[in-house]
Amino acid sequence: MNSLQRIEILFLLMFFCLTLGVPLTSQAASQLLPPQRVIENTSNKLKAKLQDPEFANNPKKINSFIDKEIFKKIDFYRMSSLVLGKHWRTASKEQKQKFTREFKTLLVRTYAAAYTSQFKEWTIHYLPLKLPDGAKKATVKTQIIQPGKQPVNVDYYMATRKGEWKVFDIKIEGISLVITNRNTFNTMVKQKGSLDAVIAELSRKNKKHKQLELHSS
Question: Sheet of 137-145: strands edge to edge?
C-alpha cells in the first residue's frame, strides 16, 4: 500500500465519522451547542439524500454533494497547513493553494464511493460540551454507536472561520488524522525530494481518476 492509499483510507474513516448518524429528536437537537449542531446537521443532510436511489447511484451528484454540503464544514486550508507542518511554513502562496486544492480533490473523489447501507446502522452520542461565551475553538466529543459493537470514541477539533464552526482535525480512538497524515506526507516529501513533486503526484492521480470517471459515464 502506497502513501496516497493510506491517506485515502484514513480520510475515508474521517468521512464516515463526520457523516454517520441519525436525526435526534427535536428536544435533543435543541440541547446541542453550535459546534455539535454542525456535525448533527451534516449527518442529517446526508441521511435525507440517501433516501433517493438516483442520488446514491450517481457519482457526479455524490461528488457535488460532498463538495458543497459535507466538505464546506471542513477547514481545508487549516487542515492542509497542519498536515504539511514544517513544509507549509516554507511553502509559497502558490504551493499552499495548489496543495489545498489537490488535497481536497483527492478526498472528494475518495468519498464518492462511501455510500452504503451501513449508514443506517449508526448513531451518534454527543458527550457534554462546555463552550464559554466568545469561544473560537471547541472539541466536540462523540461516540459512534453500532449495534453489536463497542462504541468508537471520536473527537472533532473545531474552530470558527469567518463566523462558522468548521472541523480541522478528528481523533478516532485517540489517533489524530492530521498527525498521522503529516507523517505520511513528510515521508512523501523526503522520498520525492520536494513539495512540488508531491503536489504533482496528487494532481496526476486526481486527473487519472477524472479520466476514468469520464470513460465510465
Answer: 123-126, 137-145, 152-161, 164-172, 175-176
Provide the 3-class DSSP secondary structure of residue 188: helix
CATH number of this structure's domain 3-216: 3.10.450.710
Give the separation between CA 125 and CA 140, rounded to whole angstroms: 11
Calpha distance 29→118 (Å, rounded):
23
d(CA 96, CA 77): 8
Question: Rounded distance, CA 64 to CA 72, Å?
Answer: 11
Between 150 and 94, residue with greater pLDDT: 94
The candidate with the shortest Cα–Cα distance to 3, out of 194, 184, 179, is 184
Spell out a b/e string for 102-123, using b for 16 or more CB atoms within 10 Å of the CB, else e. bbbbbbbbbbbeebeeebeebb
Distance between CA atoms of residues 128 and 107, nearest Å: 30
Q: Is pLDDT of 15 > 90? A: no
| C-alpha span between 203 and 193 (Å, rounded) | 16
pLDDT tens-digit profile of 87-139? 999 999 999 999 999 988 887 777 665 554 444 566 788 999 999 999 999 99
What global pTM score does this model have? Answer: 0.82
- What whole-number distance in Å separates Cα of residue 210 and Cα of residue 100? 18
Burial level of 4, CB count in 10 A (0-12/13-18/19+)?
middle
pLDDT one-digit tens code per residue, 172-194: 889 898 998 899 899 999 999 99
